[in-house]
Each structure stands twice: as C-alpha cells, then as structure tokens.
Amino acid sequence: QVQLVESGGGSVQAGGSLRLSCAASGRTLSSYAMGWFRQAPGKEREYVSAITWSDGTTYYADSVKGRFTISRDNAKNTVYLQMNSLKPEDTAVYYCAAVVCCWYAVGSWGQGTQVTVSS
After folding, report:
1. Which DSSP string corresponds to 47-84?
2. What is the rounded distance in angstroms from the CA atom of residue 58 to the CA atom of residue 34?
3. Could you check whether the bond before residue 103 is cis, i.e. omega within 30 degrees of 0?
4. DSSP code at position 103
5. Which candidate among 37, 64, 70, 106 keeps its CA 20 to 30 Å from the CA of 86?
C-alpha cells in the first residue's frame, strides 16, 4: 500500500507559479510510476503528468505541456510539480497517485491540495 501526502497549493493570479509536493511511502512504491491528477469543481478527475522513479522519464497532458514540470527526489520519495504560467482553468484540487501506464491511478488517493488561479 502506498501512502501519499500532497502540499504546496495556494491562490495565485494568472501567470503566477506554484510548486506542489507529494511525499510518498509504502513497500510497493518502486513498483509504480508517480502521477499528478486534478479535479475541478463539477468535472471529472483528469491526468496531468507522470514520472518514472527509475530514470525520471516524464509525461504530460497536452493542456499543461510547456508550463508544468514534474520531477522527483528518489532519496526523499517525493515528487514535485512545478506549475508556471498558471491559468484560471488550472484551478482544481491536485492529487498525486501511484500510477501504471498510461496513466491510471492505483491504490488510494491523498487528501489533495487546492490550487486557485484568479484572472
């Protein structure tokens, strides 16, 4: 079982930046990649980005490509999401998850962290 704790959300104006963190733990952690998802009010949860623990290969949804950067610190079992050039449509609760290709969450979700972008 993988346990996840997200942090780093907040409120920013359009064009601003935020950095999200996801601290992960669990004996099966190395069996999966890690991903970020988001859920806006009234919408389904959607995939944002993913990264492999082994070699750091990264993947992005088209909506965030060029603006968001996912990274990981293997020593800390932590995954980050650097979000630049934020838009009001990025407003959502952001969740990290252990994932399998391409890309589906496995196990339980963390509590999520709210990101609000004002115009």
Report:
1. EEEEE-TTT--EEE-TTTTTTEEEEEEGGGTEEEEEE-
2. 10
3. yes
4. T
5. 106
What are 50's strand-pairing partners? Answer: 35, 59
Q: How far is residue 43 from each of residues 46, 60, 91, 92, measured CA to CA in Å?
A: 9, 19, 11, 9
Pick from 99, 17, 114, 19: nearest CA to 59: 99
Report the distance separating Cα 45 and Cα 92, nearest Å. 9
β-bridge mates for residue 24, sequence order: 4
Q: What does the block give as tokens for 43?
A: 């919408």
Tokens standing for residue 73:
């610190």
Spatial distance between the Cα atoms of 95 and 41, rounded to a whole number of angstroms: 14
Instruction: Say whether 32 sits in a helix, a strand or coil.
Output: coil
DSSP state of 99: E
Dist. CA 5–CA 20, nearest whole Å: 11
